[in-house]
UniProtKB/TrEMBL annotation:
InterPro entries reported for this sequence: FUC_metazoa-typ, GH, Glyco_hydro_29, Glyco_hydro_29_N, Glyco_hydro_b
Record domain Glycoside hydrolase family 29 N-terminal: where: 93-426
GO molecular function: alpha-L-fucosidase activity
Name of this chain's protein: alpha-L-fucosidase
Organism of derivation: Pontiella sulfatireligans
Length: 671
């Protein structure tokens, strides 16, 4: 492949760390770690850092010197330019953040598309099926670049591609924005690039510009258009990370950054050369040629932070109004992103004012013909409702086939979502997070003084109890047919709304509640009301309080629960939910958890006040992928609750594996 090189200069301000000649005390250390945890979106744990402070304080004087704070600094590290600290260009760009995010916050729901020459392989190479993301097949199967060019790119000719059909399907699903992979990690540009000939025009027989066609279709149908661009990884370039079979000496480590290791000192220069010669010029090319509304970056930790700054600075100089996601590096984006493939959603609204979830229809982002793990329509409607409840956007991914058609499974899912959105879109678009505690009937989104109750577990008598609302209700109605509903106070800050006996929509019936003024909940109320007229009520781990070194997972298929339950967490580790009942209840208690042979094992106790249930951890066979673990309910017994507030806790008793288990939720079934 011939590379056309554009020389781009960038000035990097070298930062220096502040030295603490006499050391810092515990409070100063806390302040430093609070800022760090805030930056990475994690809850600050004072117990954890108190223990770590004591461990680092080698002489016991209550102060940490530079050497004690950074023991790794005593080892040899690679020398590389440091990022600018709050550079003027970035500070200036953030002054208009709210304006450029206006359309994005209103849109709420978008389509993410992973499509490239890898789509032709459909997740299989030489008879071997890929177990991970199909779009990663070049790296996962270490296909030589010349082979990939000859046997994959040279055969990519998606003559059935129809941009208008794609965007009509996007719009019919209720989606308001569209993001397409312009260049994924395989490095091939899906547009005719003047920067590098590893592109769709020179490497494939397809003689069209699909990016231009999609941009035009989006304009035609009123959809905001954007690009995914892999700025950090490019397996076709010697400076693009991770391709060790074509480019010996390329780093493979991820955490901590490879750039800290002296043996990769030369690669820092190769990486910077890639950023200057390809990443920045191509980014400027697509920004100027196609005028996207949003740029979606990825995997920023694969290059030093200063190189991500170079990329963003170059783009901001020519396109100050483009929305940028968080995967350009810590704190540089306009909004936060969840993990890949979220199956559940953390309360991101507590840490981020704008954020986005990126689920995909099965377990791959690119097309994978053998992956038939597609979630049902109801899964995505529920996830969309929960995303809206917590103030986020949902960018839902599909992977079109190598011939240019969208897979039938994805068409079916999108069509089903679209039918629901046609009726209930008002409860999603332009909404923000609710001030209310978790509701066992489903979720609640908000727009002004309207609350949208997403009732996914319909009460047997049709009476929905809305908990924790201090503001009086003015009126209520079914969103689908505007039918008025009766309502009444159910005691302090609770309200009963009488719906029909059967759920009008078995997936998600939306009830609109208009309040007399701004809806206000009880501040910091995390207590869940349990009711007697819902058959099954669920308390997810993300609605719990975790202690003793435990933390929430990210919500992906592999960590949708509480993680880190190792030997160090056995003494103080616990998961706790606060629940409230207004009338006596008798319920069956199940604990849903993941435990895998060879990884987990031991004994645990679930306590409901003074009622205790102790059991052995039951393991499942190890799957061929951590994404395929099963979240299995384990019945523990009956619980009886009297009116009042109760505590449900999970604690470890004995550990026999590397970890105890990963609890995900509590199920409470009416008896």
């Amino acid at each position: 492949m011939k590379t056309i090189i554009n020389i781009i200069t960038a000035s990097i301000l070298l930062g220096t760390a502040t030295a603490f000649a006499e050391g810092i005390d515990l409070e100063q250390y806390f302040a430093e770690k609070r800022e760090y945890n805030k930056r990475i979106g994690r809850e600050f744990d004072p117990k954890k850092y108190t223990k770590l402070f004591a461990k680092l304080d080698q002489n016991g004087d209550g102060l940490l010197t530079d050497e004690e704070r950074n023991p790794a600094s005593q080892t040899v590290k690679a020398s590389y330019p440091q990022p600018e600290k709050d550079p003027a260009w970035f500070v200036e760009s953030m002054k208009t953040r709210d304006q450029r995010l206006e359309w994005y916050k209103e849109a709420k729901f978008g389509m993410f598309v992973h499509w490239g020459v890898y789509s032709l392989l459909a997740g299989e190479w030489n008879g071997e099926v890929a177990t991970g993301y199909s779009e990663h097949i070049l790296r996962s199967h270490q296909i030589p670049l010349d082979t990939y060019a000859k046997d994959v790119a040279a055969k990519f000719n998606p003559v059935k591609f129809n941009a208008d059909e794609w965007i009509k399907l996007c719009k019919a699903a209720g989606m308001k924005y569209f993001v397409i992979t312009s260049k994924h990690h395989d490095g091939l540009a899906m547009w005719p690039s003047d920067v590098n000939e590893w592109d769709i025009a020179d490497a494939t027989p397809f003689e069209r510009d699909p990016m231009a066609e999609l941009r035009d279709a989006c304009k035609k149908h009123g959809i905001h258009f954007g690009f995914y661009y892999s700025q950090a990884q490019d397996w076709s370039h010697p400076g693009g990370q991770r391709n060790t079979w074509d480019f010996p000496g390329n780093p493979t480590q991820k955490n901590p950054g490879w750039y800290e290791d002296p043996k990769f000192a030369e690669h820092i220069q190769r990486s910077e050369k890639y950023i200057k010669e390809k990443s920045i010029p191509q980014l400027l090319e697509i920004v100027e040629r196609y005028q996207p509304d949003i740029i979606w970056f990825d995997t920023p930790s694969w290059v030093p932070l200063y190189q991500n700054q170079m990329v963003l600075k170059a783009m901001r100089e020519v396109a100050p109004n483009i929305v940028v996601n968080s995967r350009i590096g810590y704190g540089l984006g306009d909004y936060a992103s969840t993990c890949d493939q979220p199956d559940d959603i953390q309360p991101y609204q507590k840490k981020h004012d704008v954020w986005e979830g990126i689920p995909t229809t099965n377990l791959s982002y690119g097309y994978h013909a053998k992956d038939k793990s597609h979630k049902p329509v109801s899964f995505f409607i529920a996830l969309l409702a929960k995303t809206a409840e917590r103030g986020g956007n949902m960018l839902m991914n599909i992977g079109p086939m190598g011939n240019g058609l969208i897979a039938p499974e994805d068409v079916e899912i999108l069509t089903g979502i679209g039918k629901w959105m046609d009726v209930n879109g008002e409860s999603i678009y332009g909404t923000t997070h609710t001030p209310l505690p978790p509701q066992t009937f489903g979720h609640v989104s908000r727009k002004g003084n309207k609350l949208y109750l997403h009732v996914m577990r319909w009460p047997v008598d049709g009476k929905i109890t809305l908990a924790g609302l201090k503001t009086p209700i003015a009126k209520a109605w079914l969103l689908a047919d505007k039918q008025p509903l009766d309502f009444s106070s159910a005691g302090s800050n609770d309200w009963n709304i009488q719906g029909p006996g059967n759920a009008p929509d078995p997936i998600n019936t939306v009830i609109v509640v208009e309040t007399d003024g701004e809806p206000i909940g009880i501040e910091n109320d995390e207590t869940t009301l349990l009711v007697s007229n819902i058959q099954e009520q669920r308390l997810h781990a993300f609605e719990s309080k975790v202690e003793g070194g435990l933390k929430w997972g990210q919500g992906s298929p592999r960590d949708n629960g509480v993680v880190g339950w190792n030997k160090g967490a056995m003494e103080d580790g616990q998961v706790e939910w606060s629940v409230r009942v207004e009338a006596p209840l008798e319920l069956q208690l199940d604990l849903v958890y993941v435990a895998v042979e060879g990884q987990h094992g031991g004994r645990y106790t679930v306590s409901v006040d003074d009622q205790r249930f102790t059991a052995n951890v039951e393991t499942q066979p190890k799957p061929d992928s951590s994404k395929k673990v099963k979240y299995i309910p384990h019945t523990l017994g009956k619980v009886r609750l009297q009116p009042g507030i109760h505590s449900i806790t999970v604690k470890g008793e004995e550990i026999t594996g590397k970890e105890l288990f990963m609890p995900s939720s509590i199920l409470l079934q009416r008896l």
